[in-house]
Structure formats: structure tokens, C-alpha cells
Amino acid sequence: MFAALSSIQYVYFIGIGGIGMSALARWFAANGRTVAGYDRSPSALTQTLTQEGIAIHYDDQVEAIPLVFRENKATTLVVYTPAVPVNHSELVYFQQQGYTIQKRAAVLGIIASSMRCIAVAGTHGKTTTSSMIAHILRHAGVDCAAFLGGITQNYQTNLLLNKNLDDQTFVVVEADEFDRSFLQLHPEIAVITSTDADHLDIYGSKEEVANSYTAFAAQVKSQLFVSLHTHLNQSAKITAQTVPYANLPFATDKGIFATHIRIENAKFVFNYVASAHSIENIVMQIPGQHNIENAVAAISVALHIGVAPAAIKEALATFGGVKRRFEYIARNENMVLIDDYAHHPTEIEAFLTAVKTLYPKRKVTAIFQPHLFSRTKDFYKEFAVALSLADRLVLLPIYPARELQSDFPHIRAEIILDLVTAKEKYLVPDNEVVEFLKNKPNDIIATIGAGSVENLIQPLARALFV
Fold first, then answer.
1. At residue 70, does pLDDT exceed 70?
2. pTM for the whole structure
3. pLDDT per position as a tens digit, 423-459
4. 261-292: per-residue pLDDT in tens?
5. Phi, psi for residue 406 in degrees, rounded to 5
6. Do residues 79 and 42 share a domain?
7. What span, in angstroms and rounded, lies between the C-alpha atoms of 197 and 121?
8. Do residues 302 and 331 both lie within one domain?
9. Contact indicator for 255, 244 with CB cutoff of 8 Å
10. CB burial class (10 A; 0-12, 13-18, 19+) of residue 413?
11. Does a structural domain hold residue 107?
């Protein structure tokens, strides 16, 4: 066990239902710690944690903290996320009582430092890419842990547990750029999938976003794979070997890329090309040019650490993707319902392009919920362009998450809707979407977003696929 955590017997999470926090909670529980926590509301993740024996409550009250945590301050670690308000009663209590308190990212950094860390950062694609890498390693029999930002279809979890814990064991980590969390990591190998501007409420400018990715790159110990469209500060002292990758051939003989991309039997197929290796006829279950690019990065990492090309090809053919990333929810001869977590314009464009590539002659209805007032303010024009790829747009009101409408009095979903050029476009309250679509002809339906739009998925499936 880690020296920094060796004396910790109890771990309490504030915001335990988050995808990253829940993985840490399960890791500590699997390693013999007593774990409990608070979250704002129940979810599928908190239900799973409860079923695994982790106590969770949903009222911000100090009295709700299990007594064992309040009686054992010296051996209790408190973990929280930056999304927790500074005036959160339980957080304030732990601060006033002098508990050991760490952000989620710092704790993940401590865990990752004890193993051979493979970190995947980027505005888009990091969940799928890190999940691909973890699946390839697991399929090839390489001992590894994985802390992922989504629920993998293959393993139905966001956490893979390693068998051993030593300096030869790999850990695959999704490196989150929010609040500069990824700067807690010093990986042996890293992938940066993209550096598009996001979280400008945190960073302030796209230049500062790039600077943070550059700082992350400078912490890589061994080898760094950087995508073709990634922009880093070239004057920075990046000591790791840098290799660009993409889903298209480069103009020079440098770089790693895919070629001969085609669709066969409704699946994407491609060849992988690098200076030292080539792998032909790789079949992907998950669609999209963007996922081919993710696969190129994952293949490159696996080859770098010695996984055989044949094992990589076999693994990718069985990779089922990640929940809420181009996830088929229901389909019959007349309709298809697909769900995707996309909440940035670039992600939405990639997702809708993939949908229309697979279904070129069918009409697409996009149900989108903007996530955060600040992101809507920063990217409403780009959202409108991406959503105009749909034949019909059903736009939901903005999901505020950690933000308050009063801080953004003039930001509404209508500023996106006004600029969308789709043939049909509607602003519909969340609780009216199902009835709205029941009364219309439907073909391909896509639910898109990172907020409560997720709660519409099963009601739509029940109402439309009878």
C-alpha cells in the first residue's frame, strides 16, 4: 500500500456518485477500507455502490455522516470534487475538525504513482480511448488497473482492478482537464486526443487551455502520443518522445495513422500504419471516424508496451464501447434510438456525422440538452452549426449542473435554437419530450448531452418501441 495512505482505514467521499469518485470509492473498498459518502441525488452509480456495501446518503447534514468516520479522525481520509460548493456543510465540518482532505485528482495521482501509469487526456475522446487501451491490455493478459470516465460495455464498470500492486503493473487513467486535475499525474505514457477549448469558466481563454495541456505533456516520463489537431506550446520543455497520430495519412513519413477506411457489414474497417508496424483489416464494433482515431492511439500505446498485433486486432473486434458513447438503446425495422454523452460542439459534430454516415438515407432527430450556462455562452454558435446536421432538433432547456441561472441572466437555450438551420427545430421542456415525439413520425432518434437528458432514454424506448 502507498506510504501516503498506509495509515488510512476510512475513506469518506463528498460527491461519491460522480464517475471518477465512484471508481475511487470502489478501489478503496476493494483494498480493505471502510468507505461511505454523500451525493446530491441517487443514480445508477450510487445504487451500484450501495449494493456493494458502501453507505451513501443524500442530505447535506453532518449528522448523516456515519459515526465511525466522526470518531476516527486520525485514520480517515476525506475526498471531494471541485464541483462541491465551498459552503457544503459536510465539507466545512471536516475542514473545521482538521481532517485529512484531498481532491479526487490528488488521490488518483497518489494511486497512479505506484504503478506504470498510462494517462489519456483531451477535450474529446479520452473515455473511449482509455477504455480501448484497458480492454486491449486485459484481453492480452496484461495485469492492469483502470480508472475510466464511463461504464464500459465489456465490463459493465468504470473500474478495473489489478491482480498485483507493484512497479510492473499498469494503470490506465482518464486524465481530466477540469480544474487542471490532470496536473496531479506524472505518467509513463500519455495520449492527448485534442486540446479544443472547453471549461472556459475555469481557464478563461483557449490559450490557457493549451498551456495546461502543455504542462501535462511536460510531466510525461517516457513517450507521448499527440493527435494531429493538438496544439501545444512548442517552446515548452517536453522531454518525452512525441509522435503524432490521426485517422488520415500524414503528408510526411512521420506519424501514425489509419488508411483504407471503409464500412463492411455496417462496421468500420481500417488498416493501421506506423513506421515499425502495420495491422490490416481491423474491425470496429463502434462507429465513427473519431473512434478510428481513438483506436489508432490505443493501438500505438499497446504496441509500445509490447502487446502483439494479433492480440490488439482481436481485442478491438470485441470492444463494445462505453455506455452513453454511441450506445444503441433500441432498434427495429422502422426506428433506431441511439444515445451519446456529447456535450461539446466538436463531439456533437463527430457523433451526428457518424450517425448520418451509417444511415445516409434516413432522417435524424437530435434531442439535445445544453450542459452549463457558461459552456452555452462560450459555444452557442458552434452548437448551432453542429446541431444543424440533424433533420429535426428537439432542444431542451439548459442543464445548470453546478451553475446558477442568476449568474447568467441572458443565457437561454433559445440562443442556440435561433441559429440552427435544421428543417425542423423545437424547444421542448424535458417532461414533454416523450409525448411530443409520440405524435410525430420518427426514424433515427439520438439523445445527446451530459445532463438529465439521460433520464429520457428509457421512457422514450418504452413509448416508441412497443
1. yes
2. 0.82
3. 999 999 999 999 999 989 999 999 999 989 999 999 9
4. 998 988 899 999 988 889 999 999 998 888 99
5. -65, -20
6. yes
7. 13
8. no
9. yes
10. buried
11. no
Same domain, 312 and 350: no
176: confidence class by pLDDT, cuts 50, 70, 90: confident
Question: What was the pLDDT predicted at 114?
Answer: 83
Q: Report the distance separating Cα 10 and Cα 35, nearest Å.
A: 6
Q: Is the dihedral of CA 284, 288, 293, 298 positive or negative?
A: negative
| Domain shared by 202 and 292, yes or no | yes
Q: 17-21, 73-77, 265-269, 401-405 — which one is most confidently predicted on average?
A: 73-77
Residues 190/220, Cβ–Cβ less than 8 Å: yes
353: domain CATH number is 3.90.190.20
Question: Structurally, how many domains does the chain consist of?
Answer: 3
Residues 121 and 86 in one domain: no
Mean pLDDT of the chain: 90
Residue 221 and residue 150 share a domain = yes
> Which residue type does 238 have?
I
CATH number at residue 272: 3.40.1190.10
Q: Which residues form the domain of 18? A: 7-102
C-alpha distance from residue 462 to each of 112, 337, 435 (Å):
42, 11, 12
The CA–CA distances, whole Å, from 18 to 83, 93, 339 equal: 10, 21, 19
Q: Are strands 144-147 and 159-160 parallel, antiparallel or unpaired?
A: antiparallel
Q: What is the pLDDT of residue 6?
A: 75
Examine residue 1 and state whether it is found in any structural domain, yes or no: no
Q: Are residues 406 and 361 part of one domain?
A: yes
Q: How many residues can be counted in the chain?
A: 466
Question: Is 70 part of a structural domain of the chain?
Answer: yes
CB-count burial class (<10 Å; 0-12, 13-18, 19+) for 123: buried
